[in-house]
Amino acid sequence: GGGPAGEYRDATGPTHASAAAGTDEPRLTGRRAGHAAAAGPLAGGPATGTFKEKAPMIMERLQKDFGVSKEQAAGVVGSLAAETGGFTKLQEENPRGGGRGGYGWAQWTGPRRREFEAFAAQKGLSVSSDEANYQFLLHELKTSQSGELQRLRGAKTADEASHIFTGSASEGVGFLRPGAEHYGQSAKYAL
Question: Quick one: the chain helix, strand, coil %, rounded to 5?
Fold first, then answer.
């Protein structure tokens, strides 16, 4: 289901053209306290803005930084949005097995969460910032998760890209590898 290739849909709203959605400039804030404020999209301070504001920017950056198609970028954004309730819940609610649970766009857990926190601190970025989340996503796709990027490149549709990127803990594949499968939720955002 969904709209034409290269489009995304938030879980409750209509389909929006991927890179051309909206003309409002996002209102994302600067770096954490003690650092100069950065203006513009995906700046380094606490995450603000809506799914409709963030999705086109993230898709555009993924296409530019990795040369992926609009459909592949939409699948990634859909998967990340499903993990975070449309980029509104960075901390996992009711984590399985105790502990701190997942945090960030990809709900990084355990060692990956600690790596994310250290990465953001080294860059002087708040872990809640869109920029820290994007940069760590970029870092992982270039290093420890580069195999998942190669798998993603084979996707022809946003739905297929979302399925590949989300993956499964039980199958041991995918970038996200959630313990509880949620492909349907990812597809709602991706298509």
Answer: 45, 5, 50
